[in-house]
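Hello Y.,

Per our agreement to keep a running log of every chain we model this quarter, I'm adding this entry. I've kept the format consistent with earlier entries: sequence first, then predicted structure.
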Amino acid sequence: MPPSPIPDAYRTATPYLIVNDAAAAIAFYKDAFGATELVRLADPTGKVMHAEIRINNSPFMLADEFPDMGYRSPLTLGGSPVSIYQHTGLRPAFLWPTSWAASRPGRAAPAAASGCHSWGTS
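Predicted structure for the entry above:
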């Protein structure tokens, strides 16, 4: 049998998010969702060219925007039609952005910290 084209621990489809500040988004995902950072490749200026994180058993890829190459973040585009849903078993009272921001004084609002992608939990 030929080897699978899908790497181990990945699914058939994996989200790839383009964000305005990938380092801040990764920090947010770690803090808010307990994400594990797997890979981060940055250019000499620190911009993230490619990163991979895992939230529970779900892998995500992300990078900073590079408008010259056509990769623009929701912040640059004025919003995103993308929403990401996480099954957590937590009560739905944990709503964005009010509960997250209220429980973390002085922190950025999730929409900005997460790269302006909408997140929901169940």
